[in-house]
Design a protein that fits this description.
Elements (H helix, E strand, L loop, with lengths): L2 H17 L5 H4 L4 H6 L8 E6 L2 E11 L10 E7 L2 E5 L4 E3 L4 E4 L5 E16 L17 E2 L1
Parallel strand pairs: 1-8
Antiparallel strand pairs: 1-2, 2-7, 3-6, 3-7, 4-5, 4-7
Length: 145
């Protein structure tokens, strides 16, 4: 085998390991959001489905009103997968439908609310508490989906 062929084989093997997750399928593999959402029923419980550098991609099923809270050190991205999410802000409500994204800026007090069951995806730094600086019965550590 030539050096070029050896390099190609090594690169191919590294790409193969990355594509198949090397024991961490969510890290580099394809994640089916619908399948992950079907795997749990608990409301307002974040489930981690991927990591991007120091960020986590989380999904949750939500219904009813959450709590007013802020994230002093980070923005928070919401993507609605299904249903309708209202993000209540002191300055006025933001209503999101499937396929729509809204970023709550750091330090802005907000209160997510969903009249019917809604599936959401959130993108935020690892270690970000779902209730920001507030501690309540709704505070949950994310679990792997």
């Amino acid at each position: 085998m030539t050096t070029r062929e050896s390099t190609h084989e090594s690169t191919h093997e590294t790409a193969h390991q990355a594509a198949h997750g090397n024991g961490r399928p969510e890290a580099h593999g394809v994640v089916n959001i619908a399948e992950k959402l079907a795997g749990f029923t608990e409301q307002w419980a974040p489930h981690r489905i991927a990591r991007v550098n120091d960020y986590e991609v989380k999904i949750a099923k939500v219904q009813g009103e959450f709590i007013w809270h802020t994230h002093e050190d980070t923005d928070e991205l919401f993507l609605v997968v299904s249903g309708t999410l209202t993000i209540r802000l002191r300055a006025g409500d933001v209503v999101l439908n499937p396929g729509e994204i809204y970023v709550v800026p750091r330090g802005v007090e907000h209160c997510p609310q969903a009249d019917g069951e809604t599936a959401i995806l959130m993108f935020e730094p690892a270690g970000t508490a779902n209730t920001g600086g507030e501690v309540s019965d709704r505070t949950r550590e994310p679990v792997d989906a």
